[in-house]
């Protein structure tokens, strides 16, 4: 099977790290096709950025959808997820949503730990958007926004473990999600130091994309799909998808 | 005061109708500055279209923000609302949100009546996004999607009144919102035939925009604003706003 | 237009302060007609007091309703609001409700800061009554109930600012309501010291009353109105309203 | 023990019927002391009427509280309940609340069946006020408001049974509450015709009042009690209670 | 009347204490028939243990149901409650549920105080299962699990009072439940030291069982009852109940 | 990897069908180890039966846990799921929960269609237990309970398709779950006739079990695990697990 791993951020190094994790998990079950945004933002961290980047993600998916069995939107916060699910006839998975729903099968109360307080509001929104707000024990972050996001996983390792331990002991979490692309790959390294199940969102998302693809579900003909619509100024591939002219 | 009325749809006739209503309400209290999208869709009707059109709306606002006291996003469904509120330091009002919150001061249970079942999911989402889902009695629409959206207000007048009356008698609504830009202006015409308060969303939105502007609130310096961010490929005015380079 | 500003507390000085704010906001848009209760309590601070004072408010409104375009119940806690909305055919606005719904158009999470822990339960109830409990970040107050309620705005200014800053940094609020009539007028003074939008409830309520009146909605004929009822021992004007004998 | 049965309606015949049921249930466990309102309304059926009648109920309780072990507010809709609970140091029980909480120990989903659509909104409010809205399957009533409220139990018997059966088969209720004082005593008569547990609210309320009194709980000294307050124009006994001058 | 007091724990001393309280409360109104589990666990403290013990409780009830008017499941956490309610045609009451619903008639926000953090998740589950999660202010416990559960009420008295006082002052509780069978009987001893209503769950449960029995409700013929079913390996009495062969 | 497929029903034919589906999905990724209950019920259909069967499932898992990478509880309704998750240190998946969470990644509103109204309450409970009640559009079933459960998939095929189509058109579902073991395998056959995504719970559950196992999460050392406990009368393997004596 063929999985599109769409990074709506412009940072190639993040795509590379996530692709490595995805390929390690997929083995020979799936071909991972990574894409990195060429417009937009180096690292999405707000609703305004997600509004724009979600549209960019739609265009990236539309252009590469041929022959694809499932799509991963590889940014925690899931820009464009609901929109993509509406128009493409393959499963589309978001990192935050997949991590949260996977967590819901492993425990009762989930927390997110991440590297910056800047992300708190957006990440909390993502959990509530799944409908699982009642099982959410909150986001734990350092007090201040540090500069070196790219190396957060290594530079902040000890602090992140401490935050995760407090999520367990003070907030009652039994599953902890290490959220945000810069922390990709950290979960298995620190799991032994945290008395809860620890989830790596990119691993969860890629695993769920393969799972949904393996179920060979029929997504064509859904009553909920938008009617065909003309458009102006969109990327040509996306314009064709929305006009129901493209094979999706 | 100066109110930006941003229509993220490309249909100029809708903008014209809404501008007339806005000016009738504003009198000499406010100058209404209408804008119509020149890219995107003739009439937004899905989450995918709203994802793209919300980004377009951000660009339109950014280009015309100088000297503006409040912004109305003049499409029921509020594309780009949360994002715009985050980055601009003036009040930003959405048609759906303003109609719903206005309704909440006039009754206990609100319904939306609109011209097509295609809009149901998206409109219901808008109500839930406000947090007032528990006071929502649902969306009532004709069974099928008709062709002539532009003239829905006149062609479907009797059917819309019947739907509104059923929203009252069967769903328990005491406030009815006539949702969707094609129905702008219909509410005062039919209010006498419906045993509930009937709201015109564009009127509610323009009135709320003037209200918020009149309160002379301080929006600069909010802790919730995103940090400055570089970007590639965005409309220049929006790029500057997001980089904190523009006066907003 | 003519706005009735009904203070169900017996403290004339509060009415005077709120009337000044209302008139400053209304300019020549509206005539503000203030009323102060002559029975009941100097300052309502509990559900039991609100039960009694709400009935008193109904009587005050009934006696002065002729020619009125909208009513403000000028006590945070909104005694009698739901009841008044049911029987009078003009918009009725409460200070707490109007502040909360206005806040909901300016941010995502709202907090209330007030001068005494005695108010906490009642104020929290008011937010939940709007249906927006999920967007409520709590009430912050000093630890103890101080004696000089009348001068709380000036005597406790620094402490209230500190509480509001904690509502932002610890509770995640992006809008702060300074609740309680004794704090009327404080919001614009301290807004620059608080990294969130700061709302003065009396300003929000008067602005919303004028907004609703300006929409020229039809409230007569609502299906939700109580049937005519005889009564014994009520203020004559209220008795006539409830018997459907009075023009309202 | 001594139970105050406070009817905030002015209809003596209702008080008599409810007193008979209460005494039948109490046997020699408790003395039932009935009170009927002498001001207010013959039969409360709206929020506005409940606002006024709740204040009347407070005065009635205050005047007769000496030596009382628990209070029943004997009107479905519970006017004044929260207020009374706040100021009196004995258990106070409402007919609607007691019926709903009793129902919650007998099944999973509860419905209310009553004699008039006029009551629907108010009764639904009562259920939601308990916090058990998620277990509420709705109110079922005849389509129109009939004239002869006093004899509803006998005249409408067959229709009420049909409504209750539909609450079970269509709404999924496993407990049905026959709401409204005119239906007092009907539940045991029709229980055999309805495939669910059928509750008589006055029986539930009196039973719960005796239950709470039997637990010999300490209500004095609660931190949630309002501070002492002066008042003007209240019934003297109530004024003393609110001023903390009366023994309660 | 005859009340079955079923302790699904194997600790006879707990049964004895609870039986004493039950008999003190029942006086000559009811005969209390205590049962103690002879298989299972000394003291249930987890969902896994409750899964097993709930099945054991069903068997105990089935064997002794003849002539019984109501059943108390005498373990906080209510193992088997929903299942028992489904199959037996007499009221079945759980200690946690009865305490929570009784609390809901005495105040607005309830907390649970117990002797060990091990119970927190399970007890919180019990409150949410009633549907009253929105009125729940949380569980307060000592930081660590102590060894001597049997004597917790006396050994930890001071600490439990402190926890209860913090539940009031910090969590806003106005009713405190002392949860867990080892604390049976403590509530009346400490009520004077806690500024809230303090509830003893076994007293609440026994009182509610007698209350429900006194209402002489008809539970036979409920549409929600499971259809008759054959089984293998169950205690014979339970097998007959589930096969609809036994008189229940 | 090794997946335990535990059927807590006693019907071998169901186990065989589900094992075939599981093996078809697993291919050479996983060994499927099926177990069928030898005590309990032929087909679990109520809470009381689930209470007993959940305990039986715990014993079955405990006896066969050695070398297992994940467990599927192969009964819609998930008897014993929460309990099993608490005590075993491998992922445990339930058919209902897995179907619901999988559905949540494929659409916005999910419905369950099943073969008998007898299951409605229990299945609805399962959805709410996941926390996703707000995205639940209800259970659709035939009006009456038919006799031939074993052949429901073939005998009721047309009726089930009609019910699913109504779940889409009337309830707004965009994902439909065909619930209950007798319908295993039907989903792919009828998907083309239903304008929504159609899910087979056993396929979803087995796919999720393999997914969770593939993530190689660390479940040992979770703070939420119960403390070691002695027991009497349990299956020996389960007794050792609960006493922390067994390797799990």
Topology:
6 copies of one chain form a homohexamer.
Chain A: E1 2-7, H1 12-26, E2 31-36, H2 47-64, E3 70-73, H3 81-87, E4 92-94, H4 95-103, E5 110-113, H5 120-130, E6 136-140, H6 152-155, H7 157-169, E7 175-178, H8 186-190, E8 197-199, H9 201-214, H10 236-242
Parallel strand pairs in A: 1-2, 1-3, 3-4, 5-6, 5-7, 7-8
Outline the structure in words.
Chain A is an alpha/beta fold. Chain A folds into 2 domains: 2-96 and 205-242, Rossmann fold; 97-200, Rossmann fold (3-Layer(aba) Sandwich), CATH 3.40.50. Chain A contains 10 helices and 8 strands. A 4-stranded parallel β-sheet of chain A has the order 2-1-3-4, sandwiched between helices. In chain A, strand 5 (110-113), helix 5 (120-130) and strand 6 (136-140) form a beta-alpha-beta unit. The model of chain A has no long low-confidence stretch (mean pLDDT 95). Chains in contact: A-B, A-C, A-E, A-F, B-C, B-D, B-F, C-D, C-E, D-E, D-F, E-F. The interface between C and D is large, with 37 and 37 residues. Chains A, B, C, D, E, F: Belongs to the HyuE racemase family. Chains A, B, C, D, E, F: GO terms for molecular function: amino-acid racemase activity. Chains A, B, C, D, E, F: This is Putative hydantoin racemase.
């Amino acid at each position: 099977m063929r999985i599109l791993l769409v990074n709506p951020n412009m940072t190639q190094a993040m795509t590379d790290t996530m692709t490595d994790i995805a390929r390690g998990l997929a083995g020979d079950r799936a071909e991972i096709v990574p894409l990195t945004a060429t417009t937009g933002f180096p690292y999405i961290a707000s609703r305004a950025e997600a509004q724009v980047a979600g549209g960019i993600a739609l265009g990236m998916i539309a252009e590469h959808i041929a022959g694809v069995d499932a799509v991963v939107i590889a940014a925690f916060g899931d820009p464009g997820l609901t929109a993509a699910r509406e128009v493409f006839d393959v499963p589309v998975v978001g990192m935050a949503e997949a991590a949260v729903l996977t967590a819901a099968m492993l425990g009762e109360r989930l927390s997110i730990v991440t590297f910056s307080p800047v992300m708190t509001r957006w990440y909390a929104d993502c959990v509530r958007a799944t409908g699982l707000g009642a099982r959410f024990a909150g986001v734990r972050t350092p007090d201040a926004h540090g500069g070196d996001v790219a190396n957060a996983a290594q530079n902040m390792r000890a602090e992140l473990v401490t935050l995760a331990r407090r999520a367990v002991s003070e907030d009652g979490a039994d599953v902890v999600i290490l959220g945000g692309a810069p922390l990709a790959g950290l979960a298995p390294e620190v799991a032994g130091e945290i008395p809860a199940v620890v989830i790596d969102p990119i691993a969860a998302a890629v695993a769920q994309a393969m799972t949904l693809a393996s179920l060979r579900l029929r997504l064509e003909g859904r009553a909920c799909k938008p009617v065909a619509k003309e458009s102006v100024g969109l990327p040509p591939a996306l314009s064709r998808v929305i006009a129901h002219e493209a094979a999706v």
